[in-house]
Write a structure and sequence with these properties.
CATH superfamily of the largest domain in chain A: MetI-like
Number of helices of chain A: 12
Helix content of chain A: over 70%
Largest interface: A-B, 22 and 34 residues
Largest sheet of chain B: 6 strands, mixed
Oligomer: heterodimer
Largest sheet of chain A: none
Distance between the termini of chain B: 37 Å
Number of helices of chain B: 9
Distance between the termini of chain A: 43 Å
CATH superfamily of chain B: P-loop containing nucleotide triphosphate hydrolases
CATH architecture of the largest domain in chain A: Orthogonal Bundle
Strand order of the largest sheet of chain B: 6-7-8-3-9-10
Number of domains of chain A: 2
CATH topology of chain B: Rossmann fold
Structural class of chain A: mainly alpha
Order of helices and strands of chain A: HHHHHHHHHHHH
Number of domains of chain B: 1
Radius of gyration of chain B: 18 Å
Chain lengths: 286, 248
Protein backbone atom coordinates (compact mmCIF):
# COMPACT_ATOMS: atom_id res chain seq x y z
CA UNK A 1 0.00 0.00 0.00
CA UNK A 2 1.59 3.30 -1.06
CA UNK A 3 1.28 6.70 0.64
CA UNK A 4 -1.46 7.94 -1.70
CA UNK A 5 -3.63 4.92 -0.86
CA UNK A 6 -2.98 5.39 2.88
CA UNK A 7 -3.94 9.08 2.69
CA UNK A 8 -7.04 8.23 0.67
CA UNK A 9 -8.11 5.60 3.19
CA UNK A 10 -7.52 8.00 6.13
CA UNK A 11 -9.44 10.93 4.54
CA UNK A 12 -12.46 11.73 6.79
CA UNK A 13 -14.31 13.42 3.89
CA UNK A 14 -14.82 10.30 1.82
CA UNK A 15 -17.91 10.29 -0.43
CA UNK A 16 -19.30 7.37 1.55
CA UNK A 17 -18.98 9.25 4.87
CA UNK A 18 -20.56 12.38 3.36
CA UNK A 19 -23.41 10.26 1.97
CA UNK A 20 -24.23 8.79 5.42
CA UNK A 21 -24.03 12.19 7.14
CA UNK A 22 -26.41 13.57 4.47
CA UNK A 23 -28.83 10.67 5.03
CA UNK A 24 -28.74 11.27 8.80
CA UNK A 25 -29.42 15.00 8.33
CA UNK A 26 -32.28 14.29 5.90
CA UNK A 27 -33.94 11.87 8.35
CA UNK A 28 -33.56 14.39 11.17
CA UNK A 29 -35.06 17.27 9.14
CA UNK A 30 -38.00 15.11 7.92
CA UNK A 31 -38.71 13.90 11.46
CA UNK A 32 -38.52 17.46 12.81
CA UNK A 33 -40.97 18.73 10.17
CA UNK A 34 -43.41 15.80 10.33
CA UNK A 35 -43.72 15.95 14.12
CA UNK A 36 -44.27 19.71 14.11
CA UNK A 37 -41.30 20.30 16.44
CA UNK A 38 -40.71 24.03 17.00
CA UNK A 39 -38.55 25.82 19.54
CA UNK A 40 -40.01 29.13 18.36
CA UNK A 41 -43.50 28.01 19.35
CA UNK A 42 -42.19 26.80 22.70
CA UNK A 43 -40.46 30.05 23.61
CA UNK A 44 -43.04 32.50 22.17
CA UNK A 45 -46.48 30.97 22.83
CA UNK A 46 -45.82 27.88 24.91
CA UNK A 47 -43.62 29.29 27.61
CA UNK A 48 -46.19 31.77 29.05
CA UNK A 49 -48.80 28.97 29.22
CA UNK A 50 -46.38 26.77 31.11
CA UNK A 51 -45.52 29.54 33.54
CA UNK A 52 -49.20 30.26 34.21
CA UNK A 53 -49.82 26.53 34.76
CA UNK A 54 -46.96 26.36 37.27
CA UNK A 55 -48.00 29.57 39.01
CA UNK A 56 -51.63 28.40 39.06
CA UNK A 57 -54.93 30.20 39.13
CA UNK A 58 -54.87 32.77 41.98
CA UNK A 59 -58.61 32.26 42.50
CA UNK A 60 -58.23 28.50 43.11
CA UNK A 61 -56.29 27.70 46.31
CA UNK A 62 -53.60 24.99 45.97
CA UNK A 63 -53.52 25.17 42.16
CA UNK A 64 -49.95 26.59 42.18
CA UNK A 65 -47.01 24.20 42.16
CA UNK A 66 -45.20 26.47 44.64
CA UNK A 67 -44.84 26.34 47.52
CA UNK A 68 -45.14 22.58 47.95
CA UNK A 69 -47.94 21.58 50.28
CA UNK A 70 -46.42 20.18 53.44
CA UNK A 71 -49.12 18.71 55.66
CA UNK A 72 -47.84 16.13 58.13
CA UNK A 73 -50.72 13.69 57.65
CA UNK A 74 -50.41 13.78 53.85
CA UNK A 75 -46.62 13.61 53.97
CA UNK A 76 -46.87 10.41 55.99
CA UNK A 77 -49.19 8.91 53.38
CA UNK A 78 -46.86 9.91 50.54
CA UNK A 79 -43.79 8.52 52.31
CA UNK A 80 -45.53 5.19 52.95
CA UNK A 81 -46.64 5.16 49.31
CA UNK A 82 -43.03 5.81 48.27
CA UNK A 83 -41.96 2.93 50.47
CA UNK A 84 -44.52 0.76 48.70
CA UNK A 85 -43.08 1.91 45.37
CA UNK A 86 -39.60 0.89 46.54
CA UNK A 87 -40.94 -2.48 47.64
CA UNK A 88 -42.63 -2.94 44.27
CA UNK A 89 -39.38 -2.11 42.47
CA UNK A 90 -37.36 -4.47 44.73
CA UNK A 91 -39.67 -7.45 44.26
CA UNK A 92 -39.95 -6.75 40.52
CA UNK A 93 -36.17 -6.54 40.24
CA UNK A 94 -35.67 -9.89 42.01
CA UNK A 95 -38.26 -11.46 39.74
CA UNK A 96 -36.58 -10.04 36.66
CA UNK A 97 -33.14 -11.29 37.76
CA UNK A 98 -34.50 -14.81 38.25
CA UNK A 99 -35.82 -14.73 34.66
CA UNK A 100 -33.07 -12.77 32.92
CA UNK A 101 -29.97 -14.34 34.49
CA UNK A 102 -30.37 -17.80 32.93
CA UNK A 103 -32.03 -16.39 29.80
CA UNK A 104 -29.06 -14.08 29.16
CA UNK A 105 -26.79 -17.12 28.81
CA UNK A 106 -29.06 -18.51 26.11
CA UNK A 107 -28.75 -15.39 23.98
CA UNK A 108 -24.95 -15.17 24.36
CA UNK A 109 -23.33 -16.94 21.41
CA UNK A 110 -20.09 -17.65 23.28
CA UNK A 111 -21.92 -19.19 26.25
CA UNK A 112 -24.07 -21.33 23.96
CA UNK A 113 -20.86 -22.68 22.45
CA UNK A 114 -19.75 -23.81 25.91
CA UNK A 115 -23.18 -25.32 26.61
CA UNK A 116 -23.44 -27.06 23.25
CA UNK A 117 -19.89 -27.51 21.95
CA UNK A 118 -19.26 -28.86 18.48
CA UNK A 119 -19.43 -27.77 14.88
CA UNK A 120 -21.80 -30.32 13.39
CA UNK A 121 -24.82 -28.99 11.47
CA UNK A 122 -27.25 -30.35 14.08
CA UNK A 123 -25.46 -28.68 16.99
CA UNK A 124 -25.28 -25.40 15.07
CA UNK A 125 -28.99 -25.63 14.33
CA UNK A 126 -29.77 -26.35 17.98
CA UNK A 127 -27.68 -23.37 19.12
CA UNK A 128 -29.42 -21.13 16.57
CA UNK A 129 -32.89 -22.33 17.60
CA UNK A 130 -32.21 -21.74 21.30
CA UNK A 131 -30.68 -18.34 20.55
CA UNK A 132 -33.60 -17.16 18.41
CA UNK A 133 -36.26 -18.59 20.75
CA UNK A 134 -34.72 -16.94 23.81
CA UNK A 135 -34.16 -13.69 21.93
CA UNK A 136 -37.81 -13.64 20.85
CA UNK A 137 -38.97 -14.16 24.43
CA UNK A 138 -36.71 -11.37 25.73
CA UNK A 139 -37.79 -9.04 22.91
CA UNK A 140 -41.49 -9.58 23.63
CA UNK A 141 -40.95 -8.79 27.32
CA UNK A 142 -38.87 -5.72 26.48
CA UNK A 143 -40.88 -4.28 23.59
CA UNK A 144 -44.15 -4.07 25.48
CA UNK A 145 -44.12 -1.04 27.76
CA UNK A 146 -44.59 -1.41 31.53
CA UNK A 147 -47.89 0.49 31.36
CA UNK A 148 -49.30 -1.91 28.76
CA UNK A 149 -48.15 -4.88 30.85
CA UNK A 150 -49.69 -3.21 33.91
CA UNK A 151 -53.04 -2.77 32.13
CA UNK A 152 -52.99 -6.47 31.23
CA UNK A 153 -52.09 -7.53 34.78
CA UNK A 154 -54.65 -5.15 36.35
CA UNK A 155 -57.28 -7.00 34.32
CA UNK A 156 -55.90 -10.27 35.66
CA UNK A 157 -55.21 -9.54 39.33
CA UNK A 158 -57.05 -6.27 39.89
CA UNK A 159 -55.88 -2.84 41.02
CA UNK A 160 -52.90 -2.65 43.36
CA UNK A 161 -49.15 -3.17 43.64
CA UNK A 162 -49.19 -6.80 42.46
CA UNK A 163 -50.12 -5.79 38.91
CA UNK A 164 -47.32 -3.22 39.00
CA UNK A 165 -44.78 -5.73 40.26
CA UNK A 166 -45.65 -8.26 37.54
CA UNK A 167 -45.56 -5.55 34.86
CA UNK A 168 -42.22 -4.16 35.99
CA UNK A 169 -40.74 -7.61 36.55
CA UNK A 170 -41.58 -8.82 33.06
CA UNK A 171 -40.46 -5.67 31.26
CA UNK A 172 -37.24 -5.43 33.28
CA UNK A 173 -36.53 -9.13 32.64
CA UNK A 174 -36.54 -8.41 28.90
CA UNK A 175 -34.28 -5.38 29.25
CA UNK A 176 -31.88 -7.07 31.69
CA UNK A 177 -31.62 -10.17 29.51
CA UNK A 178 -30.35 -8.06 26.63
CA UNK A 179 -28.00 -6.01 28.81
CA UNK A 180 -26.55 -9.04 30.63
CA UNK A 181 -26.11 -10.95 27.37
CA UNK A 182 -24.01 -8.09 25.99
CA UNK A 183 -21.80 -8.38 29.08
CA UNK A 184 -21.55 -12.16 28.67
CA UNK A 185 -20.46 -11.81 25.06
CA UNK A 186 -17.71 -9.35 25.98
CA UNK A 187 -15.83 -11.66 28.37
CA UNK A 188 -12.24 -12.75 27.84
CA UNK A 189 -12.46 -16.30 26.42
CA UNK A 190 -9.08 -17.25 27.95
CA UNK A 191 -10.30 -18.39 31.39
CA UNK A 192 -13.14 -20.36 29.74
CA UNK A 193 -10.59 -22.10 27.52
CA UNK A 194 -8.38 -22.81 30.54
CA UNK A 195 -11.18 -24.34 32.61
CA UNK A 196 -12.56 -26.35 29.74
CA UNK A 197 -9.01 -27.72 29.31
CA UNK A 198 -9.20 -29.09 32.88
CA UNK A 199 -12.34 -31.07 32.05
CA UNK A 200 -14.66 -28.85 34.13
CA UNK A 201 -18.35 -28.96 33.21
CA UNK A 202 -20.61 -26.20 31.89
CA UNK A 203 -21.99 -24.91 35.20
CA UNK A 204 -18.56 -24.86 36.85
CA UNK A 205 -17.11 -22.96 33.89
CA UNK A 206 -19.95 -20.42 34.20
CA UNK A 207 -19.36 -20.03 37.94
CA UNK A 208 -15.55 -19.78 37.84
CA UNK A 209 -14.72 -18.30 34.46
CA UNK A 210 -17.77 -16.35 33.29
CA UNK A 211 -19.51 -14.94 36.37
CA UNK A 212 -16.45 -13.36 38.00
CA UNK A 213 -15.81 -11.53 34.73
CA UNK A 214 -19.40 -10.37 34.24
CA UNK A 215 -20.03 -9.47 37.90
CA UNK A 216 -19.17 -5.73 37.65
CA UNK A 217 -21.37 -5.41 34.55
CA UNK A 218 -24.13 -7.43 36.22
CA UNK A 219 -24.10 -5.29 39.37
CA UNK A 220 -23.99 -2.09 37.36
CA UNK A 221 -26.92 -3.10 35.14
CA UNK A 222 -29.03 -4.41 38.04
CA UNK A 223 -28.54 -1.19 39.99
CA UNK A 224 -29.34 0.89 36.93
CA UNK A 225 -32.55 -1.09 36.41
CA UNK A 226 -33.49 -0.73 40.09
CA UNK A 227 -33.26 3.03 39.79
CA UNK A 228 -35.20 2.85 36.55
CA UNK A 229 -37.83 0.55 38.12
CA UNK A 230 -38.39 3.00 40.98
CA UNK A 231 -39.08 5.73 38.44
CA UNK A 232 -41.31 3.46 36.38
CA UNK A 233 -43.16 2.22 39.47
CA UNK A 234 -44.01 5.83 40.25
CA UNK A 235 -45.66 6.16 36.82
CA UNK A 236 -47.56 2.87 37.05
CA UNK A 237 -50.00 4.53 39.46
CA UNK A 238 -51.53 5.99 36.29
CA UNK A 239 -53.21 2.65 35.59
CA UNK A 240 -53.97 1.90 39.22
CA UNK A 241 -50.95 -0.29 39.88
CA UNK A 242 -50.26 1.08 43.36
CA UNK A 243 -47.40 3.01 44.92
CA UNK A 244 -46.80 6.74 44.99
CA UNK A 245 -47.84 7.01 41.33
CA UNK A 246 -51.44 6.52 42.39
CA UNK A 247 -51.30 9.72 44.50
CA UNK A 248 -49.25 11.58 41.87
CA UNK A 249 -51.86 11.14 39.16
CA UNK A 250 -54.75 11.62 41.56
CA UNK A 251 -53.34 15.03 42.53
CA UNK A 252 -52.49 15.98 38.92
CA UNK A 253 -56.07 15.22 37.83
CA UNK A 254 -57.58 17.24 40.66
CA UNK A 255 -55.19 20.21 40.10
CA UNK A 256 -53.83 19.96 43.65
CA UNK A 257 -50.46 21.05 42.33
CA UNK A 258 -48.90 21.88 45.69
CA UNK A 259 -49.23 18.19 46.54
CA UNK A 260 -47.85 17.25 43.11
CA UNK A 261 -44.67 19.22 43.89
CA UNK A 262 -44.36 17.51 47.28
CA UNK A 263 -44.66 14.08 45.65
CA UNK A 264 -42.17 14.98 42.90
CA UNK A 265 -39.67 16.19 45.53
CA UNK A 266 -40.04 12.86 47.39
CA UNK A 267 -39.50 10.85 44.17
CA UNK A 268 -36.49 12.93 43.08
CA UNK A 269 -34.90 12.71 46.54
CA UNK A 270 -35.35 8.94 46.74
CA UNK A 271 -33.97 8.43 43.20
CA UNK A 272 -31.01 10.67 44.07
CA UNK A 273 -30.29 8.61 47.23
CA UNK A 274 -30.52 5.37 45.23
CA UNK A 275 -28.15 6.81 42.64
CA UNK A 276 -25.59 7.67 45.33
CA UNK A 277 -25.91 4.24 46.97
CA UNK A 278 -25.59 2.56 43.57
CA UNK A 279 -22.38 4.44 42.83
CA UNK A 280 -20.91 3.27 46.16
CA UNK A 281 -21.91 -0.36 45.55
CA UNK A 282 -20.60 -0.26 41.96
CA UNK A 283 -17.17 0.90 43.15
CA UNK A 284 -16.91 -2.14 45.40
CA UNK A 285 -17.57 -4.53 42.53
CA UNK A 286 -15.04 -3.26 39.99
CA UNK B 1 2.40 -41.48 27.14
CA UNK B 2 1.64 -40.08 23.68
CA UNK B 3 1.35 -42.05 20.48
CA UNK B 4 0.56 -40.60 17.06
CA UNK B 5 0.53 -42.66 13.90
CA UNK B 6 -0.08 -41.08 10.51
CA UNK B 7 -2.09 -38.30 12.13
CA UNK B 8 -3.47 -35.26 10.33
CA UNK B 9 -4.80 -32.36 12.39
CA UNK B 10 -6.62 -29.25 11.29
CA UNK B 11 -9.52 -26.87 11.55
CA UNK B 12 -12.78 -27.72 9.80
CA UNK B 13 -11.41 -29.97 7.04
CA UNK B 14 -8.22 -28.02 6.30
CA UNK B 15 -5.15 -29.86 7.62
CA UNK B 16 -2.50 -27.84 9.45
CA UNK B 17 -0.27 -30.81 10.24
CA UNK B 18 -0.21 -33.93 8.07
CA UNK B 19 0.99 -37.51 8.43
CA UNK B 20 2.55 -36.99 11.84
CA UNK B 21 4.21 -39.92 13.60
CA UNK B 22 5.29 -39.27 17.16
CA UNK B 23 5.93 -41.19 20.33
CA UNK B 24 6.54 -39.50 23.69
CA UNK B 25 7.60 -41.49 26.75
CA UNK B 26 6.77 -40.73 30.35
CA UNK B 27 9.13 -38.24 32.00
CA UNK B 28 10.34 -36.54 28.82
CA UNK B 29 10.72 -32.76 28.60
CA UNK B 30 9.99 -31.85 25.01
CA UNK B 31 10.40 -28.46 23.40
CA UNK B 32 8.58 -27.71 20.15
CA UNK B 33 10.13 -25.04 17.96
CA UNK B 34 8.93 -23.49 14.73
CA UNK B 35 7.70 -20.31 13.10
CA UNK B 36 4.48 -18.66 14.24
CA UNK B 37 1.64 -20.36 12.39
CA UNK B 38 3.66 -23.53 11.78
CA UNK B 39 1.21 -25.59 13.84
CA UNK B 40 2.87 -25.80 17.27
CA UNK B 41 -0.24 -24.67 19.18
CA UNK B 42 -2.44 -26.79 16.93
CA UNK B 43 -0.40 -29.87 17.88
CA UNK B 44 -0.60 -29.09 21.61
CA UNK B 45 -4.33 -28.34 21.51
CA UNK B 46 -4.98 -31.55 19.59
CA UNK B 47 -3.55 -33.46 22.55
CA UNK B 48 -6.58 -32.43 24.63
CA UNK B 49 -9.02 -32.70 21.73
CA UNK B 50 -9.25 -28.97 21.11
CA UNK B 51 -8.50 -29.33 17.40
CA UNK B 52 -9.93 -31.80 14.98
CA UNK B 53 -8.11 -35.06 14.32
CA UNK B 54 -8.72 -35.57 10.60
CA UNK B 55 -7.11 -39.00 10.31
CA UNK B 56 -4.75 -41.44 11.99
CA UNK B 57 -4.41 -43.03 15.39
CA UNK B 58 -3.92 -40.62 18.29
CA UNK B 59 -3.46 -41.73 21.91
CA UNK B 60 -2.68 -39.55 24.93
CA UNK B 61 -2.34 -41.14 28.39
CA UNK B 62 -3.58 -44.37 26.80
CA UNK B 63 -6.86 -42.74 25.79
CA UNK B 64 -7.82 -42.60 22.11
CA UNK B 65 -8.18 -38.90 21.30
CA UNK B 66 -9.23 -39.60 17.70
CA UNK B 67 -12.40 -41.43 18.74
CA UNK B 68 -13.00 -40.20 22.24
CA UNK B 69 -16.48 -39.50 23.57
CA UNK B 70 -17.31 -36.27 25.41
CA UNK B 71 -16.93 -38.10 28.72
CA UNK B 72 -13.63 -39.65 27.64
CA UNK B 73 -12.35 -36.23 26.64
CA UNK B 74 -13.25 -34.79 30.04
CA UNK B 75 -11.38 -37.67 31.66
CA UNK B 76 -8.34 -36.99 29.50
CA UNK B 77 -8.41 -33.25 30.15
CA UNK B 78 -8.52 -33.82 33.90
CA UNK B 79 -5.24 -35.72 33.59
CA UNK B 80 -3.49 -33.12 31.44
CA UNK B 81 -2.44 -29.68 32.69
CA UNK B 82 -2.49 -26.90 30.11
CA UNK B 83 -0.48 -23.69 30.45
CA UNK B 84 -1.25 -20.78 28.15
CA UNK B 85 0.88 -17.93 26.87
CA UNK B 86 -1.75 -15.40 28.01
CA UNK B 87 -2.09 -17.14 31.42
CA UNK B 88 -5.91 -17.30 31.05
CA UNK B 89 -6.55 -16.43 34.68
CA UNK B 90 -9.74 -14.82 35.91
CA UNK B 91 -8.57 -11.32 36.84
CA UNK B 92 -11.23 -10.67 39.47
CA UNK B 93 -10.50 -13.90 41.35
CA UNK B 94 -7.63 -14.20 43.78
CA UNK B 95 -4.71 -16.57 43.28
CA UNK B 96 -6.23 -19.24 45.52
CA UNK B 97 -9.53 -19.43 43.61
CA UNK B 98 -7.68 -19.41 40.29
CA UNK B 99 -5.54 -22.32 41.47
CA UNK B 100 -8.56 -24.14 42.89
CA UNK B 101 -10.31 -23.85 39.53
CA UNK B 102 -7.87 -26.49 38.27
CA UNK B 103 -9.50 -29.15 40.45
CA UNK B 104 -13.10 -28.26 39.64
CA UNK B 105 -13.70 -31.63 38.05
CA UNK B 106 -13.27 -33.29 41.44
CA UNK B 107 -15.34 -30.78 43.43
CA UNK B 108 -19.08 -31.33 43.66
CA UNK B 109 -21.34 -28.85 41.92
CA UNK B 110 -22.84 -27.55 45.18
CA UNK B 111 -19.41 -26.94 46.70
CA UNK B 112 -18.15 -25.25 43.55
CA UNK B 113 -21.20 -22.92 43.52
CA UNK B 114 -20.38 -21.61 47.00
CA UNK B 115 -16.62 -22.00 46.48
CA UNK B 116 -16.28 -24.28 49.51
CA UNK B 117 -13.18 -26.49 49.63
CA UNK B 118 -12.30 -29.18 52.16
CA UNK B 119 -9.08 -29.34 54.19
CA UNK B 120 -7.37 -31.82 51.86
CA UNK B 121 -8.11 -29.61 48.85
CA UNK B 122 -6.75 -26.56 50.67
CA UNK B 123 -3.58 -28.48 51.64
CA UNK B 124 -3.06 -29.69 48.09
CA UNK B 125 -3.57 -26.24 46.57
CA UNK B 126 -1.23 -24.69 49.16
CA UNK B 127 1.46 -27.27 48.37
CA UNK B 128 1.17 -26.49 44.66
CA UNK B 129 1.37 -22.75 45.30
CA UNK B 130 4.38 -23.32 47.54
CA UNK B 131 6.07 -25.37 44.84
CA UNK B 132 5.93 -22.44 42.43
CA UNK B 133 6.61 -19.84 45.15
CA UNK B 134 3.30 -17.96 45.18
CA UNK B 135 1.86 -19.09 48.53
CA UNK B 136 2.35 -15.57 49.93
CA UNK B 137 0.19 -14.18 47.14
CA UNK B 138 -2.71 -16.59 47.74
CA UNK B 139 -5.24 -13.90 48.62
CA UNK B 140 -4.08 -11.33 46.10
CA UNK B 141 -6.25 -10.65 43.04
CA UNK B 142 -4.63 -12.01 39.92
CA UNK B 143 -4.81 -8.68 38.08
CA UNK B 144 -2.45 -7.28 40.72
CA UNK B 145 0.28 -9.81 39.86
CA UNK B 146 3.31 -9.44 37.58
CA UNK B 147 3.54 -11.51 34.39
CA UNK B 148 5.87 -14.05 36.02
CA UNK B 149 3.59 -14.41 39.05
CA UNK B 150 0.59 -14.90 36.80
CA UNK B 151 2.32 -17.64 34.86
CA UNK B 152 3.35 -19.32 38.11
CA UNK B 153 -0.30 -19.16 39.21
CA UNK B 154 -1.27 -20.81 35.92
CA UNK B 155 1.32 -23.54 36.56
CA UNK B 156 -0.07 -24.08 40.07
CA UNK B 157 -3.56 -24.35 38.54
CA UNK B 158 -2.24 -27.07 36.24
CA UNK B 159 -0.43 -28.79 39.12
CA UNK B 160 -3.51 -29.15 41.35
CA UNK B 161 -4.91 -31.46 38.70
CA UNK B 162 -2.13 -33.95 39.56
CA UNK B 163 -1.39 -34.12 35.84
CA UNK B 164 0.47 -36.92 34.13
CA UNK B 165 1.27 -34.54 31.31
CA UNK B 166 1.75 -30.77 31.19
CA UNK B 167 1.29 -28.94 27.89
CA UNK B 168 2.70 -25.43 27.85
CA UNK B 169 1.82 -23.22 24.89
CA UNK B 170 4.59 -20.63 24.69
CA UNK B 171 4.73 -20.27 28.48
CA UNK B 172 7.53 -17.69 28.52
CA UNK B 173 6.82 -15.72 25.34
CA UNK B 174 5.36 -12.77 27.25
CA UNK B 175 7.92 -12.76 30.07
CA UNK B 176 11.18 -10.95 30.72
CA UNK B 177 14.34 -13.13 30.60
CA UNK B 178 14.58 -13.50 34.40
CA UNK B 179 10.93 -14.52 34.82
CA UNK B 180 11.27 -16.82 31.79
CA UNK B 181 14.14 -18.66 33.46
CA UNK B 182 12.17 -18.90 36.73
CA UNK B 183 9.18 -20.42 34.92
CA UNK B 184 11.37 -22.86 32.97
CA UNK B 185 13.16 -23.84 36.22
CA UNK B 186 9.77 -24.62 37.78
CA UNK B 187 8.69 -26.73 34.79
CA UNK B 188 12.02 -28.59 34.91
CA UNK B 189 11.63 -29.18 38.64
CA UNK B 190 8.12 -30.59 38.12
CA UNK B 191 9.43 -32.79 35.33
CA UNK B 192 12.38 -34.13 37.30
CA UNK B 193 10.88 -34.36 40.78
CA UNK B 194 7.48 -35.82 39.91
CA UNK B 195 8.19 -37.48 36.56
CA UNK B 196 5.51 -35.39 34.87
CA UNK B 197 5.94 -35.29 31.11
CA UNK B 198 6.24 -31.72 29.86
CA UNK B 199 5.73 -30.53 26.29
CA UNK B 200 6.35 -26.84 25.70
CA UNK B 201 6.14 -24.66 22.62
CA UNK B 202 9.13 -22.36 22.76
CA UNK B 203 10.37 -19.44 20.71
CA UNK B 204 13.63 -19.14 22.63
CA UNK B 205 16.08 -21.63 21.16
CA UNK B 206 18.53 -21.17 24.02
CA UNK B 207 15.83 -22.11 26.55
CA UNK B 208 14.84 -25.14 24.47
CA UNK B 209 18.46 -26.30 24.33
CA UNK B 210 19.01 -25.67 28.05
CA UNK B 211 15.89 -27.27 29.51
CA UNK B 212 14.53 -29.86 27.08
CA UNK B 213 15.59 -33.47 26.78
CA UNK B 214 14.19 -33.61 23.26
CA UNK B 215 13.34 -31.02 20.63
CA UNK B 216 10.76 -31.20 17.85
CA UNK B 217 11.08 -28.80 14.91
CA UNK B 218 7.83 -28.10 13.04
CA UNK B 219 7.62 -26.61 9.59
CA UNK B 220 5.43 -26.87 6.50
CA UNK B 221 2.82 -29.06 8.14
CA UNK B 222 5.15 -31.68 9.52
CA UNK B 223 7.83 -32.53 12.06
CA UNK B 224 11.12 -31.95 10.30
CA UNK B 225 13.42 -32.36 13.28
CA UNK B 226 13.15 -34.78 16.18
CA UNK B 227 16.20 -35.21 18.36
CA UNK B 228 18.19 -34.18 21.40
CA UNK B 229 19.36 -30.59 21.94
CA UNK B 230 22.89 -31.73 21.10
CA UNK B 231 21.73 -32.95 17.71
CA UNK B 232 20.06 -29.64 16.84
CA UNK B 233 22.58 -27.91 14.61
CA UNK B 234 22.34 -24.59 12.80
CA UNK B 235 21.26 -26.32 9.58
CA UNK B 236 18.23 -27.78 11.33
CA UNK B 237 17.42 -24.41 12.84
CA UNK B 238 17.64 -22.77 9.42
CA UNK B 239 15.42 -25.47 8.01
CA UNK B 240 12.82 -24.95 10.74
CA UNK B 241 12.81 -21.16 10.58
CA UNK B 242 13.67 -20.31 7.00
CA UNK B 243 11.77 -22.69 4.84
CA UNK B 244 8.69 -20.55 4.59
CA UNK B 245 10.72 -17.41 3.87
CA UNK B 246 12.52 -19.18 1.04
CA UNK B 247 9.25 -20.44 -0.35
CA UNK B 248 7.86 -16.89 -0.26
Amino acid sequence: MDLVQVKKAANPFKPKSIFWVAIFCAVLVCSWENTGMSFTELFTEGWPHMVSYIVGNPTIPGSSFFPPRLVAADLKIYLFAMLETLEMASVALCMSIVISFPLSFLISRNILEILFPGSSALIKLLRRAIYLGSMLLANVCRSINEIVWALLFVSAVGLGPMAGILALGLHTAGVLTKLLAEGNEAIDPGPVEALSATGAGFIKIIIYAVMPQTMPHFVSMVLYRFESDVRSAAVLGLVGAGGIGFYLFDKVRSFENGDVTTIIIIIVTVVWIIDKLSATIRKKFI
Amino acid sequence: MIFLQDVSIGYQHVPVLQNIDLQVDKGEFIGIIGLSGAGKSTLLKSMVGKTKILSGEYRVCNLPVHKSSKKGMKELRSRVGFIFQGYNLVNRLNVLHNVMSGMLKDISLMRSVIKFYNAAEFDHAYECMKLVGIEQLALKRSDELSGGERQRTAIARALVQNPELILADEPVAALDPKSAVTVMDILQNINRSFGVTVIANLHHLDLARRYCSRILGISEGGIIFDGSPAELCSQHVELVYRRRMLAA
